[in-house]
Automatic annotation (TrEMBL):
One Pfam family, short name: DUF5342
Organism: Mesobacillus campisalis
UniProt-recorded name of the protein: YheE
Lineage: Bacteria, Bacillati, Bacillota, Bacilli, Bacillales
InterPro entries: UCP037692 (IPR017263)
Length: 70
C-alpha cells in the first residue's frame, strides 16, 4: 500500500500538465514524474519490476481522484 502520497505540478504554469509525485512503499521513498499520458518516469528509486503494475494502478487511481476529478 502506498503511504504519504504527494503530488505537485512540474511547471510553474499549472496549465502545462505533468506532476512530480512521491510516496513511501514498503518503508522506501519513491519519486517519479507522472506525465499527462499516464506514463510514469521513475527517478531515484524504481520499485521492483513485479510490483510496478500494481503500484502504477494505485498511482493512476490517486491521480484521477486528486487531479482530474476536481
Amino acid at each position: 500500500m502506498l503511504q504519504h502520497f504527494q503530488y505537485k505540478p512540474l511547471f510553474t504554469n499549472t496549465e502545462i500538465p505533468g506532476w512530480h509525485i512521491s510516496f513511501y512503499y514498503k518503508k522506501q521513498k519513491h519519486n517519479a514524474i507522472y506525465h499527462q499520458n499516464g506514463s510514469i518516469e521513475w527517478k531515484d528509486s524504481a520499485p521492483a519490476e513485479k510490483e510496478k503494475p500494481q503500484l502504477e494502478a494505485q498511482i493512476h487511481e490517486l491521480m484521477l481522484y486528486h487531479v482530474y476529478d476536481k
